[in-house]
Write a structure and sequence with these properties.
single chain, alpha/beta, Rossmann fold, 2 domains, six-stranded mixed β-sheet, four-stranded antiparallel β-sheet, 10 strands, globular, binds adenosine-5'-triphosphate, binds magnesium ion
């Protein structure tokens, strides 16, 4: 299996009602995939099964050629998955720079022993500072994370996930809850962060078409727990099925 992520006939049911039904999906190494669909389509449930927070009712999940269906999310993180909503990694009383240092240090622990990484902390600071500049956060270096605006906070979370050099980056609704201006700033910064890490595989869920157009190469449309359409962002956005599904969904 050469794809980095493979979902094989994955189903997740809640009290017997399927939220995701028999989904097959392959994500190649280095690919940038967006999963879209109306509210309740099953995007977050599918995402959770890739990250390991939801166990499928049936079917299997493969990462890097290994069956990880029953592996916990912490184990999957150690083998190279990072995601943005792990808010616990963002320490509100620490500065932007310190948070990035901690994330970079955690990332290094995957490859070498903790104390070896700690001994090389000058390199870790250099990594953290480079990520801070790439993310456009240098002006907030000494600001404590807790007092950042929503957009900058999300950007910091993304930069913290990316500085760990994951093989797979999972972004669940990266601009959710932001106002228009914050969302545009966060999108531009995300794009810049991703441009410097071309080898990273990315799966994101989003309603925000600007994020999808600037990050994704392929889009999978879900509805009623199934994948119904896939193509380039332009093909999917312009397709009659997409338009019909989103019709009347004010925020989508
Ligand atoms: N823990 C749960 N218990 C019961 N039903 C759930 C649970 N989580 C999700 N569901 C149901 O599964 C379906 C898919 O939900 P999911 O959150 O995956 O959709 P989504 O595509 O992410 O939607 P949104 O765009 O609103 O985030 C919905 O009908 C939802 O009500
Ligand atoms: Mg969701």
């Amino acid at each position: 299996m050469s794809a980095l992520v493979v979902l094989d006939q994955v189903t997740k049911a809640y009290q017997g009602v399927p939220a995701v039904r028999c989904v097959d999906l392959e994500v190649e190494r280095g690919e940038r995939l967006a999963i879209i669909g109306p509210n309740g389509a099953g995007k977050s449930t599918l995402f959770g099964m890739i990250a390991g927070e939801h166990r499928p009712t049936s079917g299997s999940v493969w990462f890097d050629g290994k069956d990880v269906t029953s592996q916990r999310s912490s184990r999957r993180a150690t083998s190279g998955m990072s995601r943005t909503f792990q808010v616990a990694r963002l320490v509100s009383t620490m500065t932007v720079r310190e948070n990035l240092f901690l994330a970079a240090l955690t990332g290094q622990r995957r490859g070498v022993r903790f104390w070896d990484a700690f001994a090389k902390r000058a390199d870790v600071w250099a990594d953290a500072d480079a990520a801070m500049v790439d993310a456009g956060l240098a002006g907030d270096a000494d600001t404590v994370a807790g007092s950042l605006a929503q957009g900058a906070r999300k950007t910091l979370e993304m930069a913290m996930a990316i500085v760990q050099r994951p093989r797979l980056l999972l972004l669940d609704e990266p601009t959710a809850g932001m106002g228009y201006e914050d969302a545009r700033t966060a999108t531009a910064q995300l794009k810049r962060l991703l441009d410097v890490r071309r080898d990273m595989t990315i799966i994101l869920t989003a309603h925000d078409m600007e994020v999808i157009h600037s990050v994704a190469e392929r889009v999978v449309l879900m509805a009623n727990g199934e994948t119904v359409l896939e193509g380039t962002p332009h093909e999917v956005a312009e397709h009659a099925t997409t338009k019909a599904l989103y019709l009347g969904q004010g925020d989508s």
